[in-house]
Amino acid sequence: MKKVYTLSTCDTSRKILKQANLESHNFEIKDIKKSPLTEAELLEMHQMAGSYEALFSRRSQHYKRMNLKEKALSESDYKNLILSEYTFLKRPVIIDGSCIFIGNSKANIEALLKHLGK
Asked: In which region does residue 53 sit, left (phi positive, over 0), alpha (psi from -120 to 50) or beta (all else)?
Protein backbone atom coordinates (compact mmCIF):
# COMPACT_ATOMS: atom_id res chain seq x y z
CA MET A 1 0.00 0.00 0.00
CA LYS A 2 1.17 3.50 -0.86
CA LYS A 3 -0.76 6.13 1.04
CA VAL A 4 -0.25 9.67 2.32
CA TYR A 5 -2.33 11.21 5.10
CA THR A 6 -2.04 14.98 4.97
CA LEU A 7 -3.84 18.32 4.83
CA SER A 8 -4.11 19.96 1.43
CA THR A 9 -3.92 23.36 3.18
CA CYS A 10 -0.62 22.60 4.94
CA ASP A 11 2.25 24.32 3.12
CA THR A 12 4.89 22.14 4.78
CA SER A 13 3.15 18.93 3.76
CA ARG A 14 2.65 20.20 0.19
CA LYS A 15 6.35 21.04 0.00
CA ILE A 16 7.30 17.53 1.18
CA LEU A 17 4.93 15.85 -1.28
CA LYS A 18 6.35 17.92 -4.11
CA GLN A 19 9.96 17.30 -3.05
CA ALA A 20 9.39 13.53 -2.86
CA ASN A 21 7.25 13.58 -6.02
CA LEU A 22 4.88 11.07 -4.41
CA GLU A 23 2.15 11.35 -7.02
CA SER A 24 4.52 9.96 -9.64
CA HIS A 25 5.16 7.00 -7.31
CA ASN A 26 1.43 6.13 -7.33
CA PHE A 27 0.72 7.15 -3.74
CA GLU A 28 -2.91 7.67 -2.80
CA ILE A 29 -3.17 11.04 -1.09
CA LYS A 30 -5.87 11.47 1.56
CA ASP A 31 -6.80 14.89 2.89
CA ILE A 32 -7.75 14.12 6.48
CA LYS A 33 -9.84 17.27 6.82
CA LYS A 34 -12.07 16.40 3.86
CA SER A 35 -12.09 12.67 4.56
CA PRO A 36 -11.54 11.94 8.27
CA LEU A 37 -9.39 9.06 9.43
CA THR A 38 -11.18 5.85 10.16
CA GLU A 39 -10.40 3.81 13.24
CA ALA A 40 -9.08 1.04 10.95
CA GLU A 41 -6.67 3.44 9.22
CA LEU A 42 -5.41 4.73 12.55
CA LEU A 43 -5.02 1.17 13.86
CA GLU A 44 -2.90 0.30 10.82
CA MET A 45 -0.69 3.35 11.44
CA HIS A 46 -0.44 2.41 15.12
CA GLN A 47 0.69 -1.12 14.28
CA MET A 48 3.43 0.27 12.04
CA ALA A 49 4.48 3.14 14.32
CA GLY A 50 4.34 1.18 17.57
CA SER A 51 2.27 3.72 19.48
CA TYR A 52 -0.45 6.32 19.12
CA GLU A 53 1.81 8.82 20.83
CA ALA A 54 4.24 8.61 17.88
CA LEU A 55 1.39 9.73 15.62
CA PHE A 56 0.23 12.53 17.91
CA SER A 57 1.02 16.17 17.16
CA ARG A 58 1.64 18.45 20.09
CA ARG A 59 1.74 21.40 17.68
CA SER A 60 -2.02 21.42 17.25
CA GLN A 61 -3.76 24.58 18.44
CA HIS A 62 -6.22 22.31 20.25
CA TYR A 63 -3.36 20.82 22.29
CA LYS A 64 -2.72 24.23 23.83
CA ARG A 65 -6.39 25.22 24.10
CA MET A 66 -7.29 21.97 25.86
CA ASN A 67 -4.29 22.37 28.19
CA LEU A 68 -3.20 18.81 27.39
CA LYS A 69 0.42 19.53 28.30
CA GLU A 70 -0.64 19.46 31.94
CA LYS A 71 -2.28 16.03 31.63
CA ALA A 72 -0.76 12.55 31.65
CA LEU A 73 -2.16 11.07 28.44
CA SER A 74 -2.52 7.34 27.88
CA GLU A 75 -2.32 5.50 24.56
CA SER A 76 -6.12 5.37 24.60
CA ASP A 77 -6.24 9.15 25.08
CA TYR A 78 -3.91 9.72 22.11
CA LYS A 79 -6.03 7.42 19.94
CA ASN A 80 -9.30 9.10 20.89
CA LEU A 81 -7.89 12.59 20.45
CA ILE A 82 -6.56 11.80 16.96
CA LEU A 83 -9.91 10.32 15.95
CA SER A 84 -11.84 13.27 17.37
CA GLU A 85 -9.73 16.06 15.82
CA TYR A 86 -7.76 15.71 12.59
CA THR A 87 -5.17 18.31 13.65
CA PHE A 88 -3.88 15.92 16.33
CA LEU A 89 -2.37 13.65 13.65
CA LYS A 90 1.29 14.45 13.06
CA ARG A 91 1.59 15.22 9.34
CA PRO A 92 2.27 14.02 6.84
CA VAL A 93 2.03 10.28 7.48
CA ILE A 94 3.44 8.39 4.52
CA ILE A 95 3.04 4.62 4.22
CA ASP A 96 4.95 2.68 1.58
CA GLY A 97 4.42 -1.03 2.04
CA SER A 98 5.83 -1.90 5.44
CA CYS A 99 7.55 1.49 5.92
CA ILE A 100 5.98 4.45 7.69
CA PHE A 101 7.26 8.03 7.80
CA ILE A 102 5.61 10.31 10.35
CA GLY A 103 5.86 14.07 10.47
CA ASN A 104 8.00 16.70 8.87
CA SER A 105 11.29 16.51 10.75
CA LYS A 106 14.41 16.87 8.63
CA ALA A 107 15.61 13.36 9.56
CA ASN A 108 12.24 11.86 8.65
CA ILE A 109 12.15 13.57 5.25
CA GLU A 110 15.74 12.51 4.52
CA ALA A 111 14.81 8.91 5.39
CA LEU A 112 11.77 9.13 3.08
CA LEU A 113 13.83 10.49 0.19
CA LYS A 114 16.47 7.81 0.70
CA HIS A 115 13.75 5.16 0.78
CA LEU A 116 12.42 6.48 -2.53
CA GLY A 117 15.91 6.51 -4.04
CA LYS A 118 16.28 10.28 -4.23
From this structure: alpha
